[in-house]
Amino acid sequence: MAEIETDVLVIGAGMAGLTAAARAATSGKSVVVVEKSAAIGGSAQFAGYAWTAPSHEVMDEVNPDGDPELRRALVDGFSDGIDWIRSLGVDCADAVTVLRYGTGHQFDTNRYIDECRRRIRSHGGEVHTSAETLALLPLDGGVAGARVRLADGTECEIHSPATILATGGFQANPDLASAHIHPAASEMQLRSNPTSAGDGLRLAEAVGAATGTDRSGFYGHLVPTGVRFRDPSDFVALSLYYSEHALLFNLDNRRFTDETVGDHLTTMDLLEQPESRGLLVADARVYRDWITGSYVEGAASLDKFDLAQRRGGRCGIAENLDEFAYLPEEWGYDGAAIAHQIRSLNAAGADGQPPRRFDSSPLDEGPYYLVEACPALTFPFHGIRIDEHGRVLDSAGGTISGLFAAGSDTGGLYNRAYTGGIAPALVFGLAAADRAAC
Ligand SMILES: Cc1cc2nc3c(=O)[nH]c(=O)nc-3n(C[C@H](O)[C@H](O)[C@H](O)COP(=O)(O)OP(=O)(O)OC[C@H]3O[C@@H](n4cnc5c(N)ncnc54)[C@H](O)[C@@H]3O)c2cc1C
After folding, report:
1. What is the pLDDT of residues 269-324, one digit of tens each?
2. What number of H helices and E strands is found in the chain?
3. Of ligand 1's atoms, which has the minimum distance to the CA of residue 18?
4. Which atom of ligand 1 is least distant from the CA of 11?
5. At the top level of its lineage, which domain of life is listed (predicted)?
């Protein structure tokens, strides 16, 4: 079997893996990257913003049950992360508000991916695509590299004092989604790259890594039921970000959550409702201000209702609340009951239940725009436990020597909360590379 020696081995060439590899190469380390798919970039190629909570106070408020050490490290490391992106010659726009409580920078993730690869190669590093990682190489209770099958079928042992797992989570594995997110999670449409199927988790568990936290949720968005993604551009186009200004009713014709906290949080709650589907109701004001507008400064705007309708989603327009009585029976909702609740909510204003903390404006301007929605899955919050340096923890709370993880492979940072996916991949990718280079 062929043998390769390197200072740093990175498994997975998306945001976390390429960041770690480019940083380690810049520090003068020899680097080998192995990527399962035929192309690099992972889900990072679909993203547009590096963002997170702007302060510890905001992070603690919006993500109170996340690992305190990781929460702190993410906020503290964010601006260095932005400087790092800029140091590769990739522009990061001025800061804007993201999802009401976050701050972030728009940047060209595809340009960043290319620049990372260029940096790795120009420093003598290797990037192997279509490569399968078979197992980690254990050594004295730690990890000393991995056994890999390269694209031409050759098997080799890559020996390295530092191995960084960055395979992007397990969202493409329905069994793991059911086991760790929710029994109904395997039914969700995949809103991510198709290759993140839990390989990092499996490799880490095989050498005794600690994992967590089950049922901590996932990042995803509401999409129209019955509409399949045709290609990755649909991931954003079909996401119903405007739900935070609309009302969502379950099959019991009840609101069950505060929609105004954010579409990504409502998405988690809808998964747990009957049949994981609900009726999303907007009025003419919400249509004008939010459905056809852009959800974050700099993002393209698109009429989400029109698209959902054209793509065959369950959509309808009611001129007024009386017309809710004519909802198609096969959808399973009692339109008159829903209309009654909207009237009561409009009358109650800020006292309506469940509360609508961030937008309690009435929905009283016809016509009404109705879309049946369901959750789609981008990545889970359960994963490999790490410390703030990206070192993988074992079940006794110690670290597994030679093993690091970053990005969506990791767990513990978020618990039923979210402040960005690019930012933790960036910050902990850099941290892992810096510690690996010590
Ligand atoms: C449509 C969309 C829009 C998004 N927008 C944003 C945004 O604006 N801001 C934000 O913060 N987040 C956003 N995200 C989330 C963000 O893209 C991810 O959180 C981020 O890419 C995670 O980085 P990662 O390196 O962990 O995973 P990825 O970037 O997905 O990379 C993982 C890589 O590992 C590879 N891999 C899998 N298994 C193996 C294996 N066994 N061996 C080797 N390689 C393997 C995969 O093929 C992939 O290339 C978005 C996601 C999507 C899908």
Report:
1. 999 999 999 999 999 999 999 998 776 666 777 899 999 999 999 999 999 999 99
2. 12, 22
3. 25
4. 43
5. Bacteria
pLDDT tens for residues 145-195?
Answer: 999 999 999 999 999 999 999 999 999 999 999 999 999 999 999 999 999
Report the C-alpha dihedral over residues 110, 114, 119, 122, rounded to 10 degrees. 180
Residue 395 alpha carbon to ligand 1 centre in Å: 26
- Taking alpha carbons only, the member of 348, 379, 380 closest to residue 363 is 348
What are the backbone dihedrals phi and psi of residue 107, each rounded to the nearest 5 degrees, phi first?
Answer: -150, 165
pLDDT of 12-28, one tens digit each? 999 999 999 999 999 99
Give the C-alpha separation, 364 to 154, whole Å.
66
At CB < 8 A and 24+ separation, what contacts does 245-248 make?
245/282, 245/286, 245/289, 245/290, 245/359, 245/361, 246/280, 246/281, 246/282, 246/286, 246/290, 246/363, 247/280, 247/281, 247/282, 247/342, 247/345, 247/363, 248/222, 248/278, 248/279, 248/280, 248/281, 248/373
Contact 413, 77 (CB under 8 A): no
Report the predicted TM-score, pTM, of the whole model to 2 decimal places: 0.96
Residue 45: DSSP 8-state? G
Question: Is ligand 1 within 6 A of the CB of residue 253?
Answer: no
| Ligand 1 atom nearest residue 169's Cα | 26
18 Cα to the center of ligand 1, angstroms: 11
**Residue 215 neighbours by CB distance under 10 Å:** 12
Beta-carbon contacts of 334 under 8 Å, excluding residues fewer than 6 positions away, are 253
Per-domain residue ranges of the chain: 2-214+381-436, 221-377
14 within ligand 1 shell (Cβ under 6 A)? yes
Q: Indicate the fold that domain 221-377 takes in CATH.
A: Flavocytochrome C3; Chain A, domain 1 (3.90.700)
Radius of gyration of the chain (CA): 23
Residue range 414-434: mean pLDDT, rounded: 98
Residue 188 Cβ inside 6 Å of ligand 1? The answer reads: no
The reply to whether ligand 1 has any atom less than 6 angstroms from the CB of 37 is yes
Q: In angstroms, what is the span from residue 281 Cα to ligand 1's centroid?
A: 31
- pLDDT averaged over every residue in the chain: 96
Distance from C-alpha of 53 to C-alpha of 418, rounded to nearest angstrom = 9
Closest-CA residue, ligand 1 atom 14, reads 47
**Ligand 1 near 166 CB (within 6 A):** yes
Tell me if 418 CB under 6 Å of ligand 1: no
- What is the mean predicted confidence (pLDDT) over 61-80? 98
For the domain covering 2-214+381-436, report its CATH number: 3.50.50.60
CA 408 to ligand 1 centroid distance, Å: 7
